[in-house]
Amino acid sequence: MLTVTSVLRLDGVDRSFGDRQALKNVSFDVVAGRMTGFVGGNGAGKTTTMRIILGVLAADAGRVTWRGAPLTPEVRRHFGYMPEERGLYPKMSVREQVVYLGRLHGMTAAAAERATEALLERVGLAERGGDLLETLSLGNQQRAQIAAALVHDPEVLVLDEPFSGLDPLAVDTVVGVLRERAAAGTPVLFSSHQLDVVERLCDDLVIIADGVIRAAGDREQLRKTYTSPRFELVVETDAGWLRDQPGVTLVDLDGARAVFDLAVGTDEQPVLHAALARGPVRAFRPVTPSLTEIFREVAQ
Amino acid sequence: MNTVQATRLVAAREIRVKLRDKTFLFSTLFFLLIAAAATILPPLLSGGPSTVAVTEQSAGPLRAAGLEVRTVPDDRAAEQAVRDDEVDAAVVSGPAVLAMDEAPDDVVAALSSQPQVRLLDPDALDPVAAFLVPFFFAFIFYVTSQVFGVQIAQSIIEEKQTRIVEILAAAVPVRALLAGKMVAGTLLALGQIVLVALVAVAGMAFGDGGGLLPLLGPAIGWFVPFFIVGFVLVAAMWAAAGALVNRLEDIGGVSTPVQLAVMLPFFAVIFLKDNATAMQVLSYVPFSAPTAMPLRLFNGDAAIWEPVAALVLLLLTAFAFLLAGARVYQGALLRTNGRTSIRTAWRSRESVS
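Above: the input entities. Below: the structure tokens describing the complete assembly.
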């Protein structure tokens, strides 16, 4: 299963709504066994992209392939999908509708029932399985939604904002479940506007803004590419002199504490020497820029 | 898994949910009670032969006619018995017949000499049946297609409103969703009227209205296929209407044309049932054919080939409406922001999956 061809690939996908072009030449890969975070502002095109992958929206141009073959309804039936706008049948029991969705994805009744029991156990809903969905708390409805997306053991997982509306405990449960799936070789594409969650979770990152993919690839690689080396310096007195140091861009200055970026190709050692020449240095260390910074850098 | 299997799963869920719905169960029970009451009660209420008070010397012909005779000493006692409500009627010297507020036909008949009657057209209908049966057919089709049509629309809107439709559309072909709902609605509607029909037939046999059965047989036989195809026609419109809105509260805005398409033919058939030309036209117009054609068959007005022709016409129309309804449904289904116009839905490119 874990072959090099186990890739969900978008290639030059366009989509317009009336005069507005929502997606422009969108191309990226979602690789098996990796969690791919899909980030972008509101209206950037995340949901449209996911709907096109799932075939509930048509692309104007371009194509989506899984393991090199174009997507057909039969192929998509093995995908798991959690739409942004959540919903299950309010008047059906949790167990019954998860089984039903499993069967719609082609499972036998027995297999769907087995998978449902296991999943409800896994997401902590085993005891509420017989209750009507509408009687569950919002958090528990979200857990049911996750079970609904996973019941047929999908080959590819596409989750639109899977963490929105979840309490911290439920976030941990969902993160755990998704990691298991990824480790088992399933490509997982999830969108989120909570960058801290994405940072914690994703291996790969796709950044979209105004319908255009601004960056895509390995998270650490992107970090290196799109952010300059950043350091924190703590000295005894005012660190304002850093402003005049060649290659230094001050990010933050708070008396004796400063955070600064170094221009590409500039060595950090001369800065340290300069600091020592002015007095004692209490701290000098590299700072890993957060995803927010990459996002700001790329999405503007 | 193919479209047929998906359709079956969808239909099975719809039926399962419906059979658990208390409103549905109670309304079915209510219809059954009405059918039972309408067929069993009238013969029971009309009662047996009249009881009649009479002096012994005049009792002979009344006994011979099978009436329940109570002998009284004189005419005054006979009248008193009527006034006390102990008997339905009294015969006093004259002879005269006494009763409180309704002439006792059987008593009068027993005392009269009647000419022999020869029916030249023995199949001609009892006027009460001739009035009730058309109304009954039209009413069944009207009520059932409205009730179950609305339910198809509601089920579609529920899936849009809860947004589960996006998961469903990603899993199975959209046409399977629609087909499943149509199949479930048709089966439930048919099941309900078959139950009502069974109860009505049993009631007629039990309540001694059995004379009507042989006459109704062919009309009912034709009513079933007309009903099924006519229902599909109406249900296709309900499905399209349901797909255009996103909230149950908004269904009123799109359902008026559909309701009119069922209501106008209903009233046309009821009011024009004695106008042969109008009925001939109505029995071919697809919206009124399901009630008008069985009716003409019941009255013996239609030639043998006519129901076949009307049914073929109805089938073609239903098929066209089904295709159009499916296109609107597909085009509007995933537009979950506000109301969609038919034009937008029709032109939508989202016929993927």
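Note for the figure: Residues 51-111 of chain B form one domain.
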